[in-house]
TrEMBL record:
SUPFAM superfamilies listed in its UniProt record: ABC transporter involved in vitamin B12 uptake, BtuC (SSF81345)
UniProt GO MF annotations: transmembrane transporter activity
Segments crossing the lipid bilayer: 57-78, 99-120, 132-150, 157-174, 186-205, 226-248, 273-300, 341-360
Mode of membrane association: Multi-pass membrane protein
Protein's name in the database: ABC-type transport system permease protein (Probable substrate cobalamin)
Annotated localization: Cell membrane
């Protein structure tokens, strides 16, 4: 029987763990800073808006300049702890943006992976199963290699649009007569991924001096992160996962099969479309700012399912929080070693052995 208090307790515990992981991660680096100083520097960075003005700029889409109104806020600090200027600068402008983005992306990918595994009733499902990651990679590589012909001026925006276009293309291909069979959706995703893989390879061959940047992006990275990157991904992640949380009951019922779900009052096709769209949007936001980072959405839901059980009312929030901590830890390893490596490499090194361990122990089975 479901116990709401258990969800609250697990979520609170994982939130405390995330805060501890963030403080320890921000303390590590070429310049070591004790966690207490990190906490004070982080609190010094907390600001509230005190006034707002509106600036006018323009973006170019398909050769046309479109005016855009952008609000500009003035902020005032809430706290004022005595922290050395160099430490404040390191924590506020170098480490915390990267850690915040790692937590946001891990939160997004783990939540989307939980939904995809429940949606497909398949333990091998992850956020990239319908080609979202491949679509984002195609958009990003196109923006890097051919900036003059891409209608979006931002790599993030190009990747985000590429991911969403791919997801809805796969859905459109798989839908017939108002129904979207899960098996057809999966096969369409595999086919589109193969096509996009070939397209990406073609663009890489012709990317010239931009080849290294494109390859590093595809490996998954969090270096040179700014607060604007966090501002791009965080609102989408929080809103998307929050809305997904409203559909955990339907996701539980879908585990019984589509026919049984229909008899229990679930609008199966509408629910499938909503779950797929929301999971794709959440994944797209994460992949657009951090590149293709594998195994977070595959392994983390498995770990939490073994610990808290298959009920998505507790599995979704706990997986999302655990995913945030997982990616912060793996990115800390990636940036504090002898030489910095893309975080996607570290998640694969950690994720593959663990997943193989689960296979050997026969812990991976149909949902």
């Amino acid at each position: 029987m479901y116990q709401p208090g258990r969800t609250v307790a697990w979520s609170a515990g994982l939130l405390v763990l995330l805060v501890a992981v963030v403080l320890v991660s921000a303390a590590l680096g070429p310049v070591r800073i004790d966690p207490v100083t990190v906490a004070m520097a982080a609190l010094n960075a907390v600001v509230v808006p005190t006034s707002v003005s509106v600036n006018t700029t323009s973006i170019t889409v398909l050769g046309f300049a479109i005016p855009v109104l952008i609000p500009a806020f003035e902020y005032t600090a809430v706290f004022s702890f005595d922290v050395a200027g160099s430490h404040q600068l390191i924590v506020e402008t170098i480490r915390m943006p990267r850690i915040a983005l790692a937590a946001t992306v891990g939160f997004s990918l783990a939540a989307a992976g939980t939904v995809m595994q429940g949606f497909f009733r398949n333990p091998l499902a992850d956020p990239s199963i319908i080609g979202v990651s491949s679509g984002a990679a195609a958009g990003a590589v196109a923006a890097i290699a051919f900036p003059a012909i891409v209608p979006f001026g931002s790599i993030h925006l190009s990747a985000f649009v590429g991911a969403l276009v791919t997801a809805f293309l796969v859905y459109a291909i798989a839908t017939e007569g108002g129904r979207t069979p899960v098996a057809t959706l999966l096969l369409a995703g595999v086919a589109i991924q193969a096509f996009l893989g070939a397209l990406i390879s073609y663009m890489l061959v012709h990317s010239g001096d931009d080849l290294r940047q494109a390859v590093v992006w595809m490996m998954g990275h969090l270096n040179n992160t700014t607060w604007s990157d966090v501002g791009f991904a965080l609102p989408v992640a929080l809103l998307g996962v929050g809305v997904l949380g409203a559909y955990v009951r339907e996701l539980n019922v879908l585990l019984l099969g589509e026919e049984d779900a229909h008899h229990l009052g679930v609008d199966v096709e509408r629910t499938k479309l909503l779950l797929l769209a929301l999971a794709s949007i959440v994944t797209a936001a994460g992949v657009a700012v951090a590149g293709v980072i594998g195994f977070v959405g595959l392994v983390v839901p498995h770990i939490m399912r073994l610990i808290v059980g298959p009920d998505h009312r507790i599995l979704l929030p706990t997986s999302a929080l655990a995913g945030a901590s997982f990616l912060v830890v793996t990115d800390t390893i990636a940036r504090t070693g002898p030489a910095e490596v893309p975080v996607g490499i570290v998640t694969a090194f950690v994720g593959v052995p663990f997943f193989l361990f689960l296979l050997v122990r026969r812990e991976v089975h149909s949902l």
